[in-house]
Write a structure and sequence with these properties.
There is one protein chain. By secondary structure, the protein is an alpha/beta fold. It folds into three domains: 96 residues, no CATH class; 116 residues, no CATH class; 223 residues, Ribonuclease H-like superfamily/Ribonuclease H (Nucleotidyltransferase, domain 5), CATH 3.30.420. It contains 18 helices and seven strands. Strands 1-6-5-2-3-4-7 form a seven-stranded mixed β-sheet, sandwiched between helices. Helix 2 crosses helix 3 and helix 5 runs antiparallel to helix 9. It comes from Lophium mytilinum. InterPro entries: RNaseH-like_sf (IPR012337), RNaseH_domain (IPR002156), RNaseH_sf (IPR036397). Pfam families: RNase_H. This is RNase H type-1 domain-containing protein. One of its GO terms (molecular function) is RNA-DNA hybrid ribonuclease activity.
Length: 488
């Protein structure tokens, strides 16, 4: 019967018990370690098991990778360090076992228990010291981040990098609940860093980030109980922010710095029907309490495509009289020209029904996400106009659900609409405000509003048609100075 080859951990432990004393012995050990590591790696991959080294299951993978890239001297230094560490750990364990055995045999069980309590107290003091040190380091990093923001840096990511934010996680979690809470806070910080990479930060946005950092610094865990409730404290702060936001007084105070964002009289422009004016006026108070009240659907690729395909198969034919389906897209080029478009049919299920398109020339320099949101806003405006023009909100002989469905291939714009007004204040804010207003008006007519994500440029005729029109108006805008707004 063949003898079982020693494992990677066994070879290291054997070296810790009998440390090589000559260069030749070390060379022999390197060969044995390399062979054992390779064999165990193959065995582990074949059996789908983890390393046999219970002390550190990831050590095998690290050594395999290090062996491939390190020189002999660096590889030898790594092995010497690991062997020395294992030897020290083994000697310490042996010393503790001998000490415990002597207490048991010489002084009886009582003395052994007293010794155990003494060791537990010493370990607790050591752990506490480590946690306090890491908490202080986290405080220092957060304070440094706050100072950088006070200096009005233009980019969040320029001086505050993700490795520094990782310092928050250095406060070692002691329970699973604490680990989940700290991961969530770190995710929030990553989101802030990502926002900084994607756009310039204005003074108001910079101040909001500074406020968030100050709150985080105030809630860096100081005790075991604090670590468990860290996330709860941060969520409580966010809840208070939301309450303040919906207050009309605080709302005006926070937004007064940008009159183009808060221009209330524009809210009522373009509505010739007096009935609609009343609804739009009521919307101001409504969306401050509820935000965007429609539904946003972001399915995976297959489900989103399948749902959009049903619009062409007659699946919704029995409900067609009370179903408005609109497709949107936008196009922006590197020269700053931008255009948006809406495509729709009065009845998607009837092939002879002609397509109708609406093209919009947008302000030069507009971002792609803003242009996509503008297209969605125009689609809602078209649907609202059609509903009130035909008076379908008053009488209908159809018992099916009344719904306005808008398909867009921009997930970022849909996310901003879904979170408004409780998400971050961004330049797209006035567009989303109008989207919420149009949605409220449509819902008052008895219709539901659905915004659905679809994969772009995948052969869906409505999306392709909107894309074609948006590109045409963008190119026309690039060649000539055109009037901003809808095309006839």
């Amino acid at each position: 019967m063949d003898a079982v080859a020693p494992s990677f951990a066994d070879v290291l432990d054997e070296a810790a018990r009998n440390v090589p004393e000559t260069d030749a012995a070390w060379d022999e050990l390197l060969v044995r370690i390399g062979d054992a590591a390779s064999q165990e790696k193959k065995r582990k991959d074949a059996e789908g098991q983890s390393s046999t080294d219970a002390a550190d299951p990831t050590l095998l993978d690290m050594f395999i990778q290090a062996q491939e890239v390190l020189s002999r001297e660096e590889w030898l230094a790594l092995i010497v360090e690991e062997v020395t560490t294992r030897r020290e750990r083994r000697l310490k364990e042996q010393e503790e076992q001998e000490h415990a055995a002597s207490l048991w045999t010489e002084e009886g069980p009582g003395a052994w228990e007293e010794g155990l309590e003494e060791r537990e107290e010493q370990e607790a003091v050591q752990i506490k010291g480590t946690l306090e040190e890491k908490e202080q380091r986290a405080h220092a990093y957060l304070a440094m981040n706050a100072e950088l923001l006070k200096k009005q840096h233009r980019y969040w990511e320029a001086d505050i990098t993700l490795p520094k934010l990782e310092a928050v996680r250095a406060v070692v979690p002691r329970t699973r609940a604490e680990e989940v809470a700290q991961d969530r806070v770190l995710e929030i910080l990553r989101t802030e860093a990502e926002r900084g990479r994607n756009r310039k930060i204005g003074v108001h946005e910079e101040q909001r980030m500074l406020d968030d950092l100050q709150v985080l610094r105030a809630y860096v865990p100081q005790t075991q109980a604090d670590r468990v409730t860290w996330l709860e404290a941060f969520q409580k702060y966010r809840t208070e922010q939301r309450k303040n936001f919906v207050s009309a007084k605080d709302f005006k105070k926070n937004m007064i710095h940008s009159q183009q964002w808060i221009d209330w009289h524009k809210l009522l422009q373009g509505f010739g029907d007096n009935e609609i004016v009343d609804i739009e006026t009521n919307a101001v108070a409504h969306y401050l309490d509820h935000g965007f009240t429609g539904s946003v659907f972001k399915d995976n690729y297959e489900r989103a495509s399948s749902h959009a395909d049903l619009e062409y198969t007659g699946h919704y034919d029995t409900q067609a009289a009370d179903r408005y389906v609109l497709w949107t897209d936008a196009s922006v080029n590197k020269w700053g020209a931008a255009g948006a478009a809406v495509a729709y049919k009065n009845n998607m299920a009837l092939i002879p029904t002609p397509w109708v398109t609406k093209a919009i020339t947008l302000e030069r320099g507009m971002r792609s996400t803003d242009a996509e949101a503008w297209a969605i806003m125009e689609a809602l405006n078209v649907a609202k106009t059609l509903i009130y023009a035909t008076k379908r909100y008053k009488t209908t002989g159809n018992v099916g659900p009344k719904v306005v469905v808008i398909y867009s291939d921009c997930a970022t714009a849909l996310n901003l609409i879904k979170e408004w007004p409780f998400g971050p204040v961004v330049p797209i804010w006035p567009i989303v405000k109008n989207i919420a207003t149009y949605t409220y008006a449509i819902e008052q007519a008895g219709y539901k509003v659905e915004l659905r994500w679809i994969p772009g440029h995948k052969g869906l005729l409505g999306n392709e048609l909107a894309d074609m029109v948006a590109n045409e108006v963008k190119e026309a805008s690039r060649r000539a100075h055109m009037v901003i707004g809808p095309h006839p």
